[in-house]
Amino acid sequence: MSSDQWSLLAALCGALIVGGLLVGVRGAIRAPVAAGRPPSRWVVRWQAAQASLPDAWARRYRFIVIAAALAAVGAWLVWARPVHGLLAGVVVLGIPWIWNPAGTSSREIVRLEALAEWMQQLAGVHESGGTLDSAITASATRAPQVIRPQVRLLAARLRVGANPSQAYRQFADAFADGAVDNIVMLFLTHAQDHGPGLSRALQSMASLTEQEAISLRSLDAKRAQVRTGTRWVSIISLAIAVYILTNPSWGGIYRTATGQLVMLVLGAMFGGALVGMRALARSRPAPRLLAALPSAAGLSNGTPSALGVAVKNKKQKVKGAAL
Question: What is the rounded distance in angstroms from the CA atom of residue 313 to the CA atom of residue 167?
């Protein structure tokens, strides 16, 4: 291979390393998105991948990005081959997903349990004579920690006079989960007809949500075996690869031009296999039952500007009543 071809391969690997590090840094920093402008597809996928990690890994991912940069540069200098550096950086970036080969359902389970507890709180307040809106407002400070920010935002919207149906829909959009859509559909039905039996309906919904959490916990325990097997297969495969590359009699072939290309293809195949196994063991949230509100009109992310519009509308109503 000529020096120009080596330079081209080195430039390609360097561009891939820099691009991967920039994506990792952007995902770790989580730059704010302008209101009404949806994030790009790649940003959504990256954030979803990070969200599938345990909190301890997600909080420290920026340090993993720095370690990946050091590993890429160090491997490139030690072996004097660009693909070695590229794959070393990719492996370090992928350590969280190698150790956690599939996102568990623990977050969904905790959220379902929190929703069931919140339903019980609402049923208790409503039985004492309060309306649904007053029950939600009263539960804002006592809601389970997992869903408390969303409940507080819903209560704030209702307090300032926002349309209840739209506030409920925005609450559902904040979770984007079919289980929450079930609860919101109950809210919407009551907001339309104000029929009796809301307390019993809330208690029944709490029981169903709790049963769903129990079923999901049982399914997650069965998938744990797949995750453990995938983790150790990945670790053993990487250990064998490192041994081959560090052994001069076996790893020398991968320092040639053909060996570099073969090594790049093998690395891509290994990464694709991990992604496939992760997809098999991944639990997907329940499909949505309600269509998401338009971002421009609904501002479903619960941004302060949406709450500000409701406050402004209430002030205008109060001013008009005073006149």
Answer: 14
Provide the mean pLDDT of the chain. 78
Q: Which two three-digit tokens encode residue 13?
A: 């690997």
d(CA 16, CA 86): 7
Q: Which of 132, 118, 203 is nearest to 164 (CA)?
A: 132
| CA distances for 107 relative to 53, 100, 166, angstroms | 10, 14, 26
Query: Where are any strands of DSSP class E within the chain?
Result: none
pTM score: 0.67
Give the three-state DSSP class for 34: coil
C-alpha span between 111 and 227 (Å, rounded): 22
The backbone region for 26, taken as left when phi is positive above 0, alpha when psi lies in -120 to 50, beta otherwise, is: alpha
CA-to-CA separations, 185 to 114, 225, 264, 296, in angstroms, rounded: 18, 36, 51, 22
